[in-house]
Amino acid sequence: MVKGDCLEITLSDDSYHSFIIDKDMSGEEEIVERTLAPVIDGQELRRIKSVKLNEKINEANDKIPRRYLWMAIELKVNQSMKLTLYDVKRSITVEGGDLVQQAKTQGLTEERILKQFLKVGDYPVLISDVTVDYDPNIFVPIGQLNQLRRKGLDQWFGVDIQPIAEVVLPKQVKVVNTPKDNKAITVLLKK
Q: How does DSSP classify residue 168?
């Protein structure tokens, strides 16, 4: 475990308590985490974020050659949002989200739309040009702009759009020395 890893304790009512490790750990060390949640000996503890694994993934992604893509975004009142991705060999168009609405107060600006669509994250792509065709004074939830962008990029790269939950578990974890008042737990981690 290293500083920044996130741990989660699954509680008996199927809720959970999560916390972030605040220091690097070597060998057998104890973590004391304060919680009001009812925790008992032997309760499941999972590592749900691994800093080292994320670093390895980022290094691998940096080695993948980036493709240049162009984007065309269309946001017209009372129509579905459209995103077209294209390069010199092919193009795809995806639609999604609720119908674009007329804004009641302040509408989306071209800068705000561009900001959302240029966030390509870990996709191996560079956006070389973006055109935005939109009606003035429109409203679209930012989350739907993001969802359309992800849908387009997933389809471009042939990614299965169904989300897959993946849990990385530590080698051995045991909850020990749980106090009767359930105010704190001690977790013993072994390599």
A: B
Q: How many domains does the chain have?
A: 2
Across 154-168, b (16+ Cβ under 10 Å) vs e yields eebeeeeeeeeeeee
- Residues sharing a CB contact under 8 Å with residue 75, sequence separation 6 or more, in sequence order: 81, 82, 100, 108, 113, 132, 133, 134, 135, 138, 140
Q: Is 24 left (phi over 0), alpha (psi -120 to 50) or beta?
A: beta
What is the Cα–Cα distance from 5 to 21, expressed in whole angstroms? 6
The single-letter DSSP state of residue 78 is T
Question: What domain range is 91 assigned to?
Answer: 67-156
Q: Considering the entire predicted model, what is its pTM?
A: 0.55
> What pLDDT sits at residue 65?
75
* 120 class by beta-carbon count within 10 Å (0-12 exposed, 13-18 middle, 19+ buried): middle
Instruction: Give the β-pairing of 67-75 and 125-134.
Output: parallel
Residue range 146-151: mean pLDDT, rounded: 93
Question: Do residue 135 and residue 176 come from a single domain?
Answer: no
Using DSSP's 3-state secondary structure scheme, residue 22 falls into: coil
Residues 137 and 174 in one domain: no
